[in-house]
Amino acid sequence: MAAETQTPDKTIYLGLAMSGAISAGAYSAGVLDFLVEALEEWEAAKRRDIANGTRTVPHHKVVIATMTGASAGAITSSIGSLCAGMGARPSKAGRPNDPAYAARDEAGSAGKVPWHVLPELYQAWVDGPAFVKSDTDKAAAKPAESGTPTIPGLLDNADLPAGTKLGDVYSLLNAQPLMNIGRKALADLEVAASAPERLPPRPYIAENLHVLLTQTNTRGIPYKIEVRGGMGGSAYGMMNHLDHAHFVLKGLGCARFVSPWAQSDAAYSYTVDSNAGGAAARNEGSLWFDSEDGEKPKDYTQPNSKRLVKNTLASGAFPIGLSALDLVTPLSHYNQRAWPMSIPPDRFKEIKPQWPWGNGSSGGGTVLRPPENYRFAAVDGGAINNDPFDLARYALMENPPERAPSDVAEVNRIVVMISPFPEAPTIDGLNPDGSANTRLTKIVSKMIGMFVEQSRFRPDVLMRALDNTGADLWRISPSRFFGTQPQPAAIACGLWGGFGGFLDIEFRRHDYELGRRNCQRFLQSWFGLPDNNPHIDAVGEPISRVMKTDEAGEEVRYPIIPLCGTARIEVTPRDWPTVTPQIYQGFVDAAMARYDRLVDLGWKQLLESLSTIEAVATRYNVLTWAVFKKARSSTLKAIRKSTFPDLVHRDQILQEDLRRILECCMDDKPSPYILTMRLLKSFPDLKSSKRVIFDVMRGTASLPTDVIAENICLLLARSIDKCPVEVDHVTALFAKDAPVYRSADSVLDELRLAYADISPDARADDVAKLMEKLQGYGYIAIEQWTGIGTGDPKKPGWIRGSKTTPAYRYAYRDDGDTIDI
User: Fold this and answer.
1) Are 239 and 356 in contact (CB under 8 A)?
2) Under a CB-based contact definition with an 8 Å cutoff, are residues 227 and 234 in contact?
3) Is the pLDDT at 4 greater than 50, yes or no?
4) HSE (CB half, 13 Å, CA atoms) of 376?
């Protein structure tokens, strides 16, 4: 078959929208890694077809036309786009006998590096970021040949050297590792781009790839609209804090694609060319242009590369935790901005900021020379737009604002969302009795989250849901199975609100490989169109699932990206990773060392602000040191209490038998077992229905407060004949927290109800032995009680005459002396 028999009109254009995810960006990176491998292998198969005059695979084209990202998704989009432009470079190549690497067709065991084809992206997400660098990491942490700095841990105090003032602290964590990771990735990509063996521009990437990164502009961009009537002027002022940085990267791909919407948006345009011989370093339009620009870091002398890194990291600058970025953006970018709005792009020029210097005047003064740039502190773009699929959708439009066809029979412009955390926010705010929680502390704590959630609300997406034939928006999100059973915790990096992946490299290795696995299944089983769509070449076997198009029936689909070559080898998920108590303790120690350093800076500043006599009096005041000691103890307790339970509940620390026992003791909210025993205390005649009651309590545990009591009553009434339980009875069960202390007998009873695999021969003594082991780790406290099982349990007094029994308390709970039921 001659090359000219290809069908260039059969093309699917993709926009990849990368959601914010903090450390779970390792998952998104894995998805992109496999996507590039699949596209490379398919292109190779098409080339073989052309050379052999055969047609063994579909010959339509798929082009990545735009990539958008927020927060962690911005890092994946910017570094990932550059990696993709270098093509798939298998990590196993050239090192077949390296025992540190897992082969492509075998399970990647713990400690081994899994197969990947985008090495710089893998290193940026898996090898680079960590709370605490291991001894192995430190030994290997020497400056790269390119001169990029080493990468310390996020809890390392290297950013707070001697002489640091409290005013020089920009974040709770050390943000310097992220800048160094970005610099290293770009330095390595420069080497890859300049290598003689570099592949030519890839046919599955647009020749002008639009990369858009969301940011939160803390300074804001002012706008005004004219209104009629009223006193005090005819303008209504607004401030926009949702910003974005737009990069056009050339030289990565060769596919033709034109975006009228993106072309109307001001952008930084750079060529990703070879710097062999230093030619690119002398070209102002090259990403590798070398020239001092006076901006920090001063030793980073590639202004274009530095601009990409800084704008990328600004999108991921999680407020307070990570440092905001000082960005400088040309004013022309705001005067020529594209908006995701249903108006023609040629009208965007009418929407201009109302700068305070206006047309050469500001208030009573005169601005003779307005600035050329706008400087601001930028923080996490995900705070306002964490899922920038709207930018991708408009960038894909052929004739904006006219929406591209979305029906399966016509669609050829598709947004694929990559969302590590697709779950909707949960609702709360009610007291156990069902009344609204109006306490000041609760309202204040909800305000930030409420504003963030509202800013992310998309009414236009709700309208799209009315169209059940839409095939222009797809999503890849985490799913993990144990056998055939889906697991509630899909990604290892999901703990601690997304920060937990920085605890251990195995968490990030797992999620990177899970991203590859989920992408493979997505392409293999879901991502397809029917053969009547004119934009695909329906050759070969259809995908394994059928698409429900309406109530009348289903239709067969053919793959948009068929799996060929190595992409057909099943990606084997890695074992679910856990950490040892020693690794967790290392994290706690590092966090407290960071706390001590920050407190020390504050203490020194306080002393410097006092007179000599006041400083001496303060330094040697016993009360002062008592306050410091109490504050440190409270901080340590808060760190453990806010981090350890998540590890236990997600099965990411300790052995299973120890985790199960801890879960019986650690929550202050009453568990299904505690609710069951409280109900049986009020209704002892229901003792024979204990199992039924427990199953009802466990099955309704996730329901909101305002419906849980009524639903428990309804389910009990269905399961128990003449059930006497009413709504008020159930509501009362939630009035008190769970007991602080537990006996071995009650814990064993709960385990037997909760888990079917508990041996009938298990005894309370077995539980006691495991409790003692947990005490050795510092997770359980053991105290003696009298009267356990008699209805009048109490701690023994000074004179001990009664028989005592050990009772067990989660070490980080000290909110009373209640025990069992």
Assistant:
1) no
2) yes
3) no
4) 21
Residues 742 and 229: their CA atoms lie apart, in Å, by 70
Nearest to 102 by CA among 538, 513, 536, 540: 513
The alpha carbon torsion through 811, 814, 820, 821 (nearest 10 deg) reads -160
Closest listed residue to residue 719, CA positions, set 699, 698, 696, 751: 696
Distance between CA atoms of residues 430 and 424, nearest Å: 18
Tokens representing 237 are 């002022």
Q: Residue 191: how many CB atoms within 10 A of its CB?
A: 15
Q: What percent of the chain has pLDDT over 70?
A: 90
Query: 285, 269 in Cβ contact below 8 A?
Result: yes
- Taking CA atoms, 153 is separated from 158, 336, 415, in Å, by 9, 40, 35
Phi, psi (degrees; rounded to nearest 5) at 377: -90, 125
Whether omega for the bond prior to residue 704 falls within 30 degrees of 0, making it cis, is no
pTM of the predicted protein model: 0.93
- CA–CA distance, 62 with 78 (Å, rounded to integer): 20
71: left (phi over 0), alpha (psi -120 to 50) or beta: left
- Measured CA distances, 767 to 74, 191, 449, 524, 777 (Å): 48, 58, 41, 47, 16
**Cα 263 from Cα 248, distance rounded (Å):** 10
The residue whose two tokens read 């109900």 is 679
> Exposed e or buried b for every residue in 303-317, given b needs 16+ CB within 10 A?
bbbbbbbbbbbbbbb
Residue whose token pair is 């072309």? 263
Q: Give SS3 for 786.
A: strand
- What pLDDT, in 10s, does the model give residues 352-371? 999 988 654 444 456 778 89
Quick count: other Cβ atoms within 10 Å of Cβ 506? 21
Higher pLDDT, 543 or 270: 270
pLDDT in tens, 43-83: 999 999 999 999 999 999 999 999 999 999 999 999 999 99
Copy the structure tokens of residue 751. Answer: 């385990």
List, in order, residues 6 or more apart from 786 with CB less than 8 Å away.
793, 794, 795, 796, 802, 803, 804, 805
Q: Residue holding tokens 């966090």?
A: 591
Q: Which of 751, 750, 676, 671 is closest to 720 using CA atoms? A: 676
Q: How far is CA 651 from the centre of its chain?
A: 19
Question: What end-to-end distance do the CA atoms of the chain give, in Å?
Answer: 79
